Amino acid sequence: MPFVKKKMFVKEKQKAFMYLINVLGYTQREAQRFISKGRVLVDGEEMMKTAGEIEGEFDFIFFEPITKGLVPAHVKEEFVLFDKPSGVLVHPQTKATPYSLIDELKYQFGRDANIAHRIDQETSGLVLCSRNKVSERELKIMFQERDMKKKYLALVHGHLKEEICVEAPLLRSKADTAIVRMVVHVHETGKASKTDFKPLEYFPGVDMTLVECAPLTGRQHQIRVHLFHVKHPIVGDPVYGQSEIDMVKFLDKVLTPQDRINKSGATRLLLHANELEFNLYNEDYHFHSKVDFLKEVRKSLGVELA
């Protein structure tokens, strides 16, 4: 379990955040954030005031990373690149999440290593991570300023016959139910969003197209929503193109693999982060995923591509 609770003891009364800084080596920002999130407990009660004091015995909940032996695709002095398998979270959803990519990163490269961007749990492929606080800032700025060129591979329903550029603003749903709130949709009041799509190969036997996707903005679910918008939803998408009942079944993990194939076409979302291109400290980098995406596609479809 990555989050563990440990009993600690201090002789003299002091500010809790100062103890986390001086004894455990966290920064002031980290220490105060941990306290505000209720990770310091006195007599079993969460300390919520960042200026709260401790004396004697108290509990501290901290992140203790574990490893499942995921080998990085590339390791450099300032950053590391993982080829994330589908199904692995980038960050833990709750304190009870048993494993995520941040576990592997911090276990192998230390506390200061951090993930520079996110991809969905079911999306496989390249995830760029920093190895120190300085490179973390640089990499995150590159993603924010769109200086990071990304390309994905997706298998979509139908025959996409020619290259298209989709410019459709995206808005997160404000519906009452939690399930619908996770959905992003095209709406004129949404944030400007742009994606280029290029068909690579059509498989008439299953009426599906392998597509290269280049997002020019970085909105949540952008590729998935834009493809759904042009009536070529990604094969295996458990949200876009599905009923709310089936979305609930998926989230509750009661949708069987065969039901998933029947509803969406595959046992997983067939979207893969395939390329990253950027310049860091005056050096150009262009990485390609080493994963055979079509092999993963065949495994998930349950039928051969033809």
Summarize the structure.
With 306 residues, the chain is an alpha+beta fold. The protein is built from nine helices and 16 strands. A hairpin with a 2-residue loop joins strand 2 and strand 3.
Description:
The protein is of the alpha+beta class. Helices cover 24% and strands 32% of the residues. Helix 1 (16-22) crosses helix 2. The radius of gyration is 22 Å and the shape is elongated. The two termini are 43 Å apart. The model has no long low-confidence stretch (mean pLDDT 92).
Compressed to H and E, one letter per element, the order equals EHHEEEEEHEEHEEEHEEEHHHEEH
Q: Quick one: how many beta strands?
A: 16
- By CATH, the topology of the largest domain is Pseudouridine synthase
Rg of Cα set? 22 Å
How far apart the termini lie comes to: 43 Å
The portion of residues forming beta strands comes to: 25-35%
Mean pLDDT, all residues? 92
Number of H/I helices: 9
Q: Helix content range of the residues, please? A: 10-25%
List segments where confidence is low: pLDDT < 50 over at least 5 consecutive residues. Answer: none
Number of domains: 3
- Major sheet: size, sense and barrel closure? 10 strands, mixed
**Structural class from helices and strands?**
alpha+beta
CATH superfamily of the largest domain: Pseudouridine synthase
